[in-house]
Amino acid sequence: MAEPLLLSIAASLASRAVAGLYELVRAKFADDPVATAALTAADGAPADSPEVRALGEVLERTAEADPEFGARLRAHTTVTQTGRVNNQISAPLQGGTVQVVQAGDIKGDITFR
What we know:
Layout: H1 4-14, H2 19-29, H3 33-42, H4 50-65, H5 67-74, E1 78-80, E2 86-90, E3 99-103
Helix pairs in contact: 1-3, 1-4, 3-4, 4-5
């Protein structure tokens, strides 16, 4: 199973929440029909779907094979969706706990401890 951060990114890709993130992954997958098929299959799928989990696994394999791509992928720590929802994702680069807040209309700061 893919790491939680990559599953969260896969869910964001499925909803096309962030155009720049989607384009980064689409361009990386351009020469890989299996990876492209996983991205296409996840398009519009719910975050907990098998398609999103499969995309997360493809992202993990791709990030392991290309550490520079993995770093660029993980650098997308803030994912903003259409509308009022903002996802803040905080995770260490190597292992650890992934912390996610998905909310709208927060007044003040949120701190992960």
